[in-house]
Give the backbone structure.
Amino acid sequence: MAEDTNIQPMQSDFEQIKKVTEEGKEYWSARELATALVYSTWQKFNRVLNKALKVAQDRGMDMGEHFNQMVEMVKLGSGTFREVENFHLSRLACLIIAENADNKKPQVQAARIYFKEQTSALELVENQNTSRILIYKTHQGESRVEVIFNSQTFWLTQKRMSDLYGVDVRTISYHLGEIFDSGELNPQAVIRKNWITAADGKVTAEEAKE
């Protein structure tokens, strides 16, 4: 018997409900995500959603970008339509929701794995001035950064800069040296040392740049 070579690979529930705009931007409907996470009512899921919204707001994320709130029309069993609240969620928003959902649910555990793997990298950096920097990559591989400013200032180590721009730390050091040599910035004003403890107990200084 000839083998069927047209068998399509199985997709996860979260991949199946993913939508893409005309501009190629992917998103998930909050109501469809609630069903995929096996929440029986919108009210129960809404409690999780509100937790995720608070986390996003505390991180200073662009709410319109990640939690795009809207009103949609749904058809009832009687054939009439009713307005309901919904959100179009980014991949990162879905991950934050999954991280705040009931971890006893296998579907929630699967969602955390799916959205974390696809997001590629998610890192919340909190420096000594309580400024927060969120660095992550989109599904298309684009680096994104969102920042909460603290007194109009935030600090990044050379390692964080290299992660953000996808270059070697030595490249960052070289360009910073060029900027300082040109007199555009005063190193005394934009460099400080963060004291860190290594795994072997040694304490070293790591320079952070404004």
Remarks:
- The chain has a mean pLDDT of 75.
- The chain is about 40% helix and 25% strand.
- The radius of gyration is 22 Å.
- Strands lie at 19-20, 26-29, 67-75, 81-89, 122-126, 132-137, 143-148, 156-157, 191-197, 203-209.
